[in-house]
Design a protein that fits this description.
221 residues, mainly alpha, 2 strands
Amino acid sequence: VLPARDSYLGLMVEEITMQPLHEPYRIFTSRSPWRLELRMSNAEARLSGIAADAGLIDEARRTVLGDRQRRLDEVAVLLASRLIEPAAAADLTGGPVQGRISLEQALKRPEVRLETLSGLAPEIGSLDSLARIELEARIKYAGYAVRQERELELLERFQGMALSPAFLERLPAAVSTEARLRIAAVNPATLGELSRIPGVRAADVAAILAALKASSDRPEK
């Protein structure tokens, strides 16, 4: 079975086999705690090893995929290490830039696309179109991915945190309407139980965890 962390199919199998279902099953990308890492552009990197072990691709194909991934990683390192002067950076970003920055830092700006860096990094041209999409997504979403991993670590740490009835009655505004209804129906005793309720998205759990942590950090009066 594919791991839930590496595929939506793995998440679907996990939920169908481990959770009670009272209606036709639906899977949304928002259900996955690792949704930022499950991109179409990195499917080969995530699943080619599993496919090879299952005999679905031969060694030659695996070698080709490995070489492709190495080229992508090499260009990523190059973008992180190649610096540009403030004037060139301002031309790229459309605004003033303080000091020299790397091409990777420039690409994190929403107005900068990977293709616009080709003149400063011709090595980008060695990547195929899918690899370029993946490299750009990896760099632009890096900060969000780090935050997602931090939220998952916090969830693991606070799985056993008790949820009072008063807290469940005053859930954060960011929690979806569907999640509120599901939580009210189940009345979970802990954060871990809440996170496993069908219909409660990873974003809902993150909002609830943030509220719980804020209340626990708040000094008692």
